[in-house]
Write the structure tokens for this entry.
Amino acid sequence: MLRWIALGLSLMLAGCSRSVPQEELDRATEAVRVGLNAWKNGDMPAKLKNAEPPVTFSDDEWSNGKFKLLAFEIKKTEGKPNQPLRCTVQLTLQDRRGKKLERDAVYEVRNGSPAVVARDPYY
């Protein structure tokens, strides 16, 4: 009987340990990096559709022109299978009056062609 319990527990743990392949995490990180570099360089989100890799990027602070992106640091990219991946980033922004501020942001990423990146408004 103990063998059956041990077998059941090991099968449950094996099912819970599925993870996203590193290649998928790297692709998501690259999509975020491509988008944030474009923002930092003063480009508009629509230009990313012709980027390599192609990206559809949504961030209201970028598209409404409220902030300029001075710098960014990608902290981590993580996720679960069959769900959008999440990329945590520290942004250094400048408002229209020249005031600098740092914000943490989380971007949800769906890999594909194009990759779809959207800022999590609740983070």
Notes: Strands lie at 55-58, 67-78, 85-95, 100-110, 115-119. Residues 107 and 119 are 4 Å apart (CA to CA).
